[in-house]
Design brief:
Elements (H helix, E strand, L loop, with lengths): L5 E6 L2 H7 L5 E5 L7 E8 L2 E8 L3 E5 L7 E5 L4 E3 L2 E2 L4 E5 L5 E5 L3 E8 L1 H4 L2 H4 L4 H4 L4 E4 L3 H20 L7 H16 L6 E4 L4 H17 L7 H8 L3 H12 L3 H18 L7 H7 L5 H12 L3 H9 L1
């Protein structure tokens, strides 16, 4: 079996992007625009992973339980909120093994990340890696020692991904992979021990799990009626708490967020129709009982009426 050290993907749907990203389940919903476009690069060398995710539209992202065995640090910048908290230019956001997170981004955004296997962390002292990588007990944020340091790190991260992306044959030789692995270690080591780690609020993990259940319900019950009482029962929380958590993480009420999700699903279905499909059939299936309001909301979101989307897709 051939080891896959590097891959890159251009995705025009949430499903395509999910297939490209190893080790976790994501829910992606565009927050603006008329289409979904993303790019993803992933490199894995001897326990160190480097990734780069570009989103062309503002998006909601709910990350399911993360791949086990890897601590993953994300540079989000000021164009995103993670677990309801605004990012900073000098932040690295930690998602620990087995945990998830929520992200609400502006557009466009480039999310740069690195991950370390416990085998690498076990050698952190000998490799002179930053102590924050070893001591973070919970998910949170590593506030680096100033924007100059974070800017230099991110520039080096981009340069490495650009070089490997432009010359993937680099990964075919053991000697170049070893040299690149040493470069990654050096890049991470230069972050130093300055700065401090700020753990997430004590409620963040519970709120993330509620959002994960909320997204799962929305995904699995797309053609079923859902009352607010149903949502509270299935997520295990009160009406007031659910409303506050969804608003904090998405900027919308639970009902408004579900409607937005279903509008995007309607667009996906109408863009890939079965023979004989009608707009009315799709609207009713997704719980839009007032066809005029559905058509108006669809046109406001996507710049055309649903009948136009269907006609173009049907040829």
């Amino acid at each position: 079996m051939t080891t896959r050290f590097y891959h890159a993907t251009e995705a025009d749907s949430a499903e395509a992007l999910n297939r490209a990203i190893p080790g976790a389940r994501f829910d992606w919903i565009a927050d603006a625009g008329t289409s979904f476009r993303a790019s993803f690069q992933h490199m894995l060398l001897d326990g160190i992973a480097l990734t780069q995710l570009g989103l062309e539209q503002a998006s909601y992202v709910t990350l399911g339980e993360r791949v086990v065995n890897f601590n993953i640090w994300h540079a989000i910048g000021t164009k995103g909120t993670v677990n309801g908290r605004q990012g900073r230019e000098d932040d690295l956001v930690l998602v620990r093994p087995g945990e998830g997170a929520t992200l609400h981004t502006e557009a466009p955004i480039l999310i740069q990340s690195f991950a370390l296997h416990p085998g690498v962390l076990a050698q952190a002292e000998a490799l002179q890696l930053p102590s924050a990588l070893m001591t973070a007990p919970v998910s949170g944020r590593w506030h680096l020692a100033g924007q100059t340091l974070s800017a230099a790190f991110l520039a080096r991260h981009r340069a490495i991904m650009a070089e490997v992306g432009g010359h993937p044959a680099l990964m075919a030789q053991g000697s170049t992979r070893a040299a690149l692995h040493n470069t990654l270690l050096d890049m991470i080591a230069t972050l130093g021990d300055a700065g401090h780690f700020a753990p997430d609020r004590s409620t963040a993990g519970r709120h993330t799990r509620i959002m994960q259940r909320f997204e799962q319900i929305a995904r699995e019950a797309v053609d079923e009626p859902l009352s607010l009482a149903d949502l509270c029962r299935l997520t295990g929380t009160s009406r007031r708490s659910l409303a506050a958590i969804v608003l904090e993480r998405t900027g919308r009420s639970p009902a408004a967020y579900l409607r937005w999700r279903r509008l995007w699903l309607a667009k996906e279905i109408l863009s890939r129709p079965d023979d004989g499909m009608t707009v009315t059939e799709v609207a009713y299936r997704l719980g839009f009982w007032h066809l005029g309001r559905f058509a108006a909301a669809y046109a406001q979101a996507f710049g055309e009426r649903p009948s136009r989307t269907l006609a173009r897709a049907a040829g």
